[in-house]
Input
Amino acid sequence: MTLHLIKLCVGAESVEDLANWQQKRLAPLKKKGKPLELQHVTRQMPKRRDELLDGGSLYWVIKGQLAVRQKLIDLRPVTREGVPHCAIVYDPELVLLLRRPHGPFQGWRYLQAKDTPPDARSFKGAKGLPPELTAELAELGLL
Output
């Protein structure tokens, strides 16, 4: 059964902020011809690895709203200053969600598939709209 992770996106004011930050992280990888994948390093290794990697995503909470998700690729053990950590590896594609409020928490949490908000649907002519406008239209039920 698929399981997801949820994480606060500290410092981002919007999905566009997150996208810009991630593009800056991807640029050196692209230049070096390395795989385009992003990582978030955390202290704890999730115990339910198989369920997470069976189609799971990393759901980002931005400014108190579940706003966007990215597909999980891998969970890799890494060491930082001699201390074991986990690199949560995820796909660069941002999938906008029908926004839903979410309170603050520390670290990451598991998110059951039944508790995830639906993806914002796209409609003809919406291509190229700013993420904030797309999210607002989705929140109003217009997408």
In short: The CA atoms of residues 22 and 68 lie 13 Å apart. The longest strand covers residues 65-80. Strands lie at 3-8, 38-42, 57-62, 65-80, 83-90, 95-101, 108-112. Residues 3-139 form one domain.
